[in-house]
Write the structure tokens for this entry.
Amino acid sequence: MDVGYHQDRNDRMLRQRVQDQWMDAYAPLRHLDPSLVLLALALSAIGVVMIYSAKLHALELDGLPTDLYSSRQLISLAIGVAAMVVAALFDYRYVRAYSVLIYLGAIAALVLVLTPFGVSVNGQQAWVSLGGFQFQPAEFGKVAVIIGMAAVLHERREQPGFVTVVLSLLVAAIPLGLIMLQPDLGSATVFVWIAFIMLLAAGIKARYLLVLGALGIAGIVAVVQLGLLQEHQLARLTAFIDPTEDVALEEVRYNSEQSMIAIGSGQLDGKGLFNGTQTSLSYVPENHTDFIFTVAGEELGFVGASVILGLFLLLLWRCLRIAALAKDHFGMLLAAGTVGMIVFQVFVNVGMAVGIMPVIGIPLPFISFGGTSLIATFILIGLLLNVHMRRF
Amino acid sequence: MSSHEPATGLRLTFLAVVVGIMFLALFSRLWFLQVLAGERYEALAESNRVRPVVIEAPRGRILDRAGQELVKNRPALTVSGDRRVLLDGAGNPRSDQAEEVLANLEVVLDMSREDIVERLTSRKYSPFRPIPIKEDVESDVVLFINEHREHFRGVVTDTLPVRTYPEGTTAAHVLGYVREIAPEELEQRTELGYKLGDLFGVAGLEATYEDWLRGEHGLKTYEVNANNVVQRALGNDPPVRGNDLRTTLDLDLQQDVERILLDGLRASRDEIHRASGSNLKSQAGSVVVLDPRNGEVLAMASYPTYDPSVFVGGLAQKDFEYVFDPENAHHKPALNRTIQGEYAPGSTFKIATGLGALRSGQITPHTTVSCPPVWGWGVRNWNRYHEGQLDLSRALMRSCDTFFYELVYNHWLKEEQQEADGEEIDEIYQETARRFGFDAPLGIDLPDEKSGRIPDREWKQAYWEQTKDRSCARAEEAAPGTYARQLYSELCNEGFVWRGGDAVNMSIGQGEVLVTPLQVAASFMAVANGGTVWTPHLGREVVSPEGEVIWTYEPTPTSEVPFEPEWLTEIREGLEDVVMEPRGTAHGAFVRGERPFPLDEITVAGKTGTAEVRGKLPSAWFASYAPADDPRYVVVVSVEEGGGGSQTGAPIARRILEAAFDLPITPFENQLPAATD
């Protein structure tokens, strides 16, 4: 009789199956990339400290609590981490399945911002106020465009031709158009860049990319020539190109100069945390949002600024690695889009602070004060963790 | 990776390269900004943050000999503006708010927009401090601005030390004035720490003692934020007040002198000039009072005068036109006539001629010379009567011109002989005059002292060379046979010749002789003290802000007059007789009135002078010293178009001596014309 043997074998196979089921259930967690989480948290923590330093003196002068901004950023960070966990939890292929809904939701929010629900700050209708919370739909729009384009390009991965290009560009163009209505030039450029990088990663033929590049340049010329930009937006750009021109650009130039003075005066090892004079005496405007990098540059010096840029490089490397390891086109495109978004925002934001890019308002990911941007970026990190965990 | 075609890997590698390039760009730029250019940006950050504010040092005071204030400082309320807040680089309002502030300033300061912008953009002010828009503002304006700060953003009110003159116009010419340093002066003096906008003494004692009087700027540094709001003080280097100058002036005497001079000029205008029959003009005059023992100037007055406070905060056009008088409508109030007025000295010069005669050996103190009413080729004495045989002291007392003509003419003949013989020409009269301090600035501690002129052969040669072309042209123009033709032809051809007429004119202080009133005073100082021409001076000592005397004037002689004792006695006797003897030309002026000058207690020596000026009434002179036996005061009065020395000069000098000796000052009355000269 071989019952005993078979019984034994059956038992073993049964145990094995149960074990495998358990293993399957927790398998993704075993393949988590903890370094990506740690890098994102480290950058966010630095951001909270920088925000605290940036506003410390000004808030003190106004008799307000000195942690007014940093504590709000901490709350956003908590929400962001929660959102990251959620984004990592369910298989990202569900995200692809629901990509249309997600995309339409983001579009709806972008429309909402232009309605009376929208709040205008500094001449930009960029905020939505709902139930006491304010958020910037454009930040979620970036996430939606990455997901939407990844979905379209994944579906049509066998036909990387003209129709695919047009379809995926349409996905990017609709929110871009709505954002231009706010108008938010900075965010709009991010969309253009994301679209370009994702088409590149998706394997669109080189000639289409060349044509797109040419069209893009023609488009920029047209926008400037046809006066679609408001004067202050144009001024910011031309101030960068021709710093000697003497018009109302002085303010823009002042920002840029003060920013460079702050960073340059930090020298090699900085003036020490909370000791930056340009920072504490408010010489650099918006130094908790768009010009946050000046705080790091001035107080932490070249060493500190390089550490921050180094952390970004490591993070981007982890993201690129995920793109390379992704088991499907969709996952790879999510990662490539995220890399595109983060590298562009870092380059433009820091480049603006050091005077090699025009002054356009783009937040520094993880670091600039602003809850929506932080949460949206953490959602993307969560998605990438998801792609990494489920790469087999 | 398994699901991707190999091209995906290539494309992601490309993306990685893009990321790498972008970060490389950022790192290189950061390296440049923070490491290569870091120090420059550090300096820029410091200049952002640190606001140095120069604190003006008050100038030192100018005091009289007893320490009474002649010039001091007062804080002037000033409204200043911050250019960086109010104006952009092109001089236009920086913002709507700045536009509103400028419009408000126009109203409260009563200034035009152009004037305000001009002040704000003027390069003479450091951009690191608020720029004064208007000085000496009414206190209610300052109060209004401070109560409505929200309408005056970028505007601050401040006090700056400015010069103030507690005694009004007293000693205006001596004190001088300050104004903002001119660019060319600044260029020479940057090393001394001057900067644009600094006050700088340009006239009078303010100019001479500039280095002592000016203080050292203080510097306060503040930390300011981006809105220029001061956060805290970083450093404070307080200003050092300038040193005080204690002068030789006697404030009470100075004020008496100025009042007596003015009253005397006014009183004399009621009098008639006998020769012309017209009223005396006496429009300008001056007085010097010296201490003959050391050259200290006790009082120095020049009329017309001006109010030195018009220079504070910049001279207005109408004040400029009065003080500097480019139209010649106010007799040049800026001129200090005691050192800058050059006049023919008239008979006051006879002490020099007299000593010249003694030195030449032509006379001794006992020699007498005839004093006819007409001499030689028809030149007249002032008196129509023959005065008989006179010795030198009598000739001085009676101011006999012909006495001196005779002597000087005889010496001129001798000089001509020396010239003909090829010997050295002995111009002893001119040499003697120079020993008295004439023909060169005495070196008083005031700027722009004139030298006067003692004519001699050398001067005449040089003058002829300068003027002969004009004289020759005039001779050509004049009709043949006329006097003008003859005169100009002579000047053209022989103008260099030192003629007997030149020598004769010089002997009585006429012709080409020019002196300043101070030089006359110096010559009488030498007689009074026995031969030393002390350099006249006003600075006595310099006192530091702590009260320490850091500089004291040491009397120094300008020259020595070679008196033999009996010569000195003879000249002194003559000068005393001028006042003391009833026949002396100034006796009347001293004894007239209910209360004569107490000549029996205080002896006075002096000399009247009446200097003819072509086309004008004569200048009146009176030079004197007292007490004659122990001189403490030299008083010289000079009045332009004042008629005669005894008529206008001596009465003023008498009252000044009354003031000097603390006697009741006799009021001027409408006097009858006195014996002239």
Residues 671-677 of chain B have pLDDT under 50 and may be disordered.
